[in-house]
Amino acid sequence: MNKNDIISLTITSMTAQGSGVGKTADGMAVFVPFSAIGDILEVRILKVKKTYAYGKIEKIITPSKSRIETDCPAFGKCGGCVYRHISYNSEKEIKRQRVVDAVERVGGLKGVKINEVVANERLYRYRNKAQLPCRNTENGVEFGFYASHSHRIIPCGDCLLQPESFNTVMNITKNFMDKTAQTAYDERTGKGKLRHLYIRYAEMTGELMVCFVVNGNGLKREDELINELKKNLPELKSVIFNSNKEKTNVITGLKNRTAYGSDYITDILCGKKFKLSPLSFYQVNRAQAEKLYTIAKNCADLKGGEVLLDLYCGTGTIGLTMAESCRELIGVEIIEDAVKDAEGNAKINGINNARFICSDADSAAKKLKNEGVMPDVIIVDPPRKGLESGVIDTIAEMSPEKVVYISCAPETLARDLKLFNEKNYSVKEITPVDLFSRTAHVENVCLITKV
Ligand code: SAH
Known about the structure:
The chain has helices spanning 88-106, 165-179, 222-232, 286-300, 317-320, 336-348, 361-370, 389-398, 410-422; strands at residues 6-14, 20-23, 29-32, 40-48, 52-62, 113-114, 129-137, 140-146, 153-155, 194-202, 207-214, 236-243, 255-261, 265-269, 272-276, 307-311, 328-333, 354-358, 377-380, 402-407, 425-433, 443-450. It is an alpha/beta fold.
């Protein structure tokens, strides 16, 4: 097989990243983005490796039954959605299969009960957050999303995953930047002012936060920009300038200045209030997060007398929604601002059996163990890279009845479940929850119990 060859290919499975895969007669796997299981395609080969190749669709000979019309002009270009061309039922099946494959192939575990994917009822405009990079064009400043695995900005137009008010913010900001002759930051030269437009929306209260990430401390004539936003967006509650002068891929800097309104917005999740400040983590799909936390709560099945340890707790959301059902809640989180938010969140909800520790999860768990803290239930919700093996050892030494593992990456979850298994903890069931419809991501709640 050579580059630019045209081959005929049937798509038979999907990768974790949402690319279709077909096998040639001689057993070579060919990855074809934006194809669908069941497609019979003419594929142009783009790159050949020893046992696999990458290709792109040249022509659809027979379309898969799961195909639907796509409804976004940026689909296939921006790095966001990978499943706008197939039905939602197919998307859910693919996501469940991804979890099954991870558990069996990565985790080497057999017979784990993997439930149906908990569906997202709102496939459009479910996100409550956007971080939009910008660039300078002949027509002035333009916002967009990065293309997959790159920093090339693809204009996003009206992204169907985000609220319409975000378009208003984008348009006002664009016009202001052009009118005042200020430019977008250019990563190559380090010049230009505006790096990212970062917008957050608290769905239940309607509050909107606009955060400008700037190369500097602010923008010229920023009052005019704020006035224009206020005039058009009555729900605007907070305008923040975040300084990021570093040559880095990290979006936000550490310094925030509130230029209008409040330092935070407030949302309601599982009946509890949560303060959101620009740097703290909050699930991007509120309605589905509520289902996720409810499933986690059912897994924990607290009776009232327990000590609950919430590792990787962010602003405390998961633990705080369960605090009333246990004796004591201890949250651990590495970001100081998030810990402050978690403490504030406990307070505004009148919860006084919770304390939060700012620390790396592993060291905090070890320290708690040495102090003789023996949690009955431990919740872990680590970032994509999963748990460090030390954390699993310490958890096993604390010997809780249950561990509830919330994961946004089935492959690292599966790797960690294998380690739990070796420590005499058995995996009861996994429930995938669709928080990120149309993208390849899938969240999971897993109940692990002491044997
Ligand atoms: N449970 C929270 C947050 C989950 S996101 C919620 O559902 O809202 C994962 C969190 O882990 C982030 O807040 C991140 O800052 C934190 N984190 C990342 N690495 C960590 C570590 N080594 N120790 C403790 N917390 C960590």
